[in-house]
Amino acid sequence: MLYFQSCIVWCFLIPALHIFATALETCNTAWFDDGDVSREGDFELLGDLRRNHWTRICSNPVDMEVQTISGIKSQHTRNTFHKYSATEGFVCLNSEQKWRKCDDYKVMFTCSGQFCSECRTRWFDSDNSTGNGDYEVLSELLMRYPREICPQPIAIEAQTISGNPASSTSDSFLIYDATYGFACVNADQGGRSCEDYKVRFTCPAAFCQVSEECRTRWLNGDDPSDEGDVESIPQLIKTFPSHACRNPIGIEAKTTYGISAKNTRDIFLSYDVTFGFACINKEQEAGRCEDYQVLLTCPSDFCQGCRTRWFDFDNPTGRGDYETLLQLEMVFPNEVCSQPVAIEAMTVSGTPALKTGDILQVYDATHGFACVNAEQPGGRRCQDYKVRFTCPLSFCLVHNQWS
Q: What single-letter DSSP state applies at residue 94?
């Protein structure tokens, strides 16, 4: 009887504890600076910020941090604050200052619950504290894990690799916000090293709702012969009008001889979907950038129009799943164009290729698709994939291959 009663208690208590633990998870938003210093002062009220950024700030923040736009924490300024709370926001009135007018401030909120978890990435741990500190910077993570992180997250969480929230450690953080990512510098810790941290991001809901994606050819519109190699989105659209999308959701770069940009020693001025890719010669230790090409991942509507049927020529029972363009052209003549605009790949059960977790050796409109079993972690095999291509309009007009 006692066992039965204990079971009843724990059967109800364990789910309750899980819900409670989930509710305690917190995440930090980006920084917001909507109000400049006016004659009256600086106003960063939660109500106003929510109206302007309603998808990027939770309705009930649990905490708030305030800094000047130059990065000085509010407690280290000489201003007096009229309002300073997560429930109302921030107000600094010039009329209440003894020494000088209010500084120009920015605010960041700490949120909890569904806001943090609705569209959340996996954990990333790309660095540790053995050098200068632990740097999990958004721009570098976007380069290393294209398509796994949105370019403009709405929130970030950081934990030690053992699972303790960053806020519960005694470390001081140089950066901890959704705009830039996370950085803990050893020199700021009073003689000890930072913990080893991992981060994950909360993205806009639309990032998780993308069920299909299509990938372009490798595009190379510039070389480093002048000031550097610049493959900007506007210039790519101008140079390759039918082969580059206007609103890419992912970008990858590699040298013309196949080395991923992240494995070179070059420093990049830009590597994101907002501008594109840029490497400036004078910023390089060697004095010159490599010659790069880029591939864009586009929304599914870029692939609509002259689109082929799905092809599933191979399966992973041998060395892997190979759905290469050359093979498909030979097996299905007149059904596949020789120079596709874009390619889509998904498992035969309907999961987009970039969301399976498989390491893909080839996935571009120039060569097709290949997943090699020997390259998969843990000794597992590739999944079974199918592909389809978007072709130039002229191909469909000649062969009547409309999808």
A: G
The helix or strand, by DSSP H or E, that contains position 215, with its residue range, turns out to be strand 213-216
Residues 213, 214, 218, 220, CA torsion sign: negative
In a domain, 22, yes or no: no
DSSP track, 247-310: S-SEEEEEETTS-BGGGS----SEEETTTEEEEEGGGSTTSSPPPEEEEEEEEGGGG-SSB---
Domain count along the chain: 4
Domain annotation covers residue 13? no
- pLDDT, one tens digit per residue, over 345-388 is 999 988 888 888 889 999 999 999 999 999 988 888 999 999 99
Helix or strand holding residue 375 (H, E)? none
Residue 55, classed as helix, strand or coil, is: coil
Span 321-338, pLDDT tens digits: 999 999 999 999 889 999
Q: Averaged in consecutive runs of 10 residues, what is the pLDDT profile of the chain (403 residues)? A: 42 40 73 88 95 92 95 93 96 93 96 90 91 93 80 93 93 95 96 95 79 86 94 95 88 93 90 90 94 92 89 95 96 92 93 86 95 90 96 85 54
- The pTM score is 0.58
DSSP state of 70: T
| 65: β partners | 108
Query: What number of residues does the chain have?
Result: 403
In a domain, 271, yes or no: yes
- Kindly report the average pLDDT of the chain as a whole number: 88
Question: 202 and 239: one domain?
Answer: no
Would you say residue 356 lies in a domain? Answer: yes
Nearest to 86 by CA among 100, 107, 101: 107
Q: Domain residues for 222?
A: 213-300
Domain boundary among 189, 209, 229: 209
Do the Cβ atoms of 216 and 276 come closer than 8 Å? no
Q: Are 203 and 284 found together in one domain? A: no
Residue with tokens 């191909």: 395
